[in-house]
Fold:
Amino acid sequence: MKKITYIVFVVAIALASASCTKTLELAPIDYFGDGNFWQNESQVSNFMVGMHKQFRDNQFMFLRLGEMRSGNYSNIDRQNTSLNELPIIEQRIDENTAGVGSWGGFYGPILQLNLFIQKVEAITFLPTAKKQYLLGQAYGMRAFYYFQLLRTYGGVPLRLEPEVLNGAADPVLLRKARATEPEVMTSIKNDINKSLTSFGAALGSTDKSQWSPKASLMLKGDAFLWSAKVYGTAADLADAKAALNAVSGNALQPSFANAFAYGQKNNNEIIFAIRYLVGESEMGGVSQYLYSTFNFDNLHYKDSLASGALLVDPLVIAAVNAQQIIQRYGYNFSLFQSYDVKDNRRNATFYDYYKVTKSGTQPYPITIRNTAMVKFLGTISANKRYFSDDWPVYREADRLLMLAEIVNAEGGDPSSYIKTIRDRAFAPGVDPTPFVNATKDANELAIFAERNKEFVFEGKSWYDLRRMKYAAEPLVYKSTLHNYGVLDKATVGFKILWPIEPAIWTNDPLVNQTPGYPTAKR
Structure:
């Protein structure tokens, strides 16, 4: 993405315009300065650039909602630093500790996209192909935001028009109750189909940081798979499969690490990614998944036998950086242990280290087992580290594993898809334990295990737990049949959805608390 100059439109302009005398001969000014905007192609295109900038600003929220509740995060401090967001990680969320506020902040971008769609639909000065492509992007991005909201809160208020920005100022008239989950799902499907219709036969930009026809096809596969498995809409399984099969021309990178490497942006595995660049922007949060050199250097060994020297900043993260380098988030060591030692994804995702008490006879007591995440470590430029790797929203590995899941749900053999993923993971060696087609439930667990190792820090594991099933029950529920569950269905089954904070229903009495959560609302 080119260096972004984000145009900020201030709603408060309306207040200033109200004080102007009627004698002033000025172009009308409304909430978005329409008197001097939406006048040419450059303005419209720059607005869409701004929408992508907002999308990038939400990257860590996408991550938070998509994986922090998955059971993969540790609640144990192993670096003498306090950990962040423990109520989310430990499932201790309720009305007063909602974990996330203001619907994740997604209605701001949705409002902007609503305005964009309204204005661009009415524009006549744009070339038809350009206009339709921009609308394809807008409908696709709005569907993505609502899909995030659906999977997080279930039913949410459906706002598809820019009411406030059109001049509606009465807060009573602006109140809106939560739509049902089926209603939100229907709206998402409609937006996806509008996106694909608008794109038509357009091929998409070579810049994979821009929403594209392939991004909408991937979203369709993702959303329709969710609809089929979570809501039981069986016909959507075939639509999801067709959408994913329509995404062509991508391939896995030969090396897993290269899929994310700073010098490999726009590589053939990436379908749609959030762009970061040295000197422009850095990925939020990565620096908080590492280690503080003050609590690390000369205190840890690379292996649990303490066979080498004490470590001193092996990842070279002490280089000058604008972000705090520390461990505020950490993955459970059991996730690291779930990888085969020959699986290349293990060391391309984590750097493991140990605190060992070297006294007495071997083996020495191990007091700390820990990892730093190295998957998005970025690059060093001019002696400064930048966490500026791109963050994949959709990539070829995701497409293959969703297809594996669909084929398994159809009663077919997902072996070819899983083999492709595992062959890359063990290349240039040979997979020591190749996948063997078995029962539908056993296959589902195998596919989930691959996704859990493949997509660390990509915001997918919590949604996978909710969507994927064993014995007809979502994996998110604790079970004697597998070890992935994090919620007791009988007592806190309602926590598959997130609560909302009191400020939401205080400001809009039509909005009720997420079902199941105790509430003070009367």
Remarks:
- The chain has 17 helices and eight strands.
- The mean pLDDT is 92.
- The beta strands are 270-274, 350-356, 366-373, 379-381, 384-386, 391-395, 469-470, 473-474.
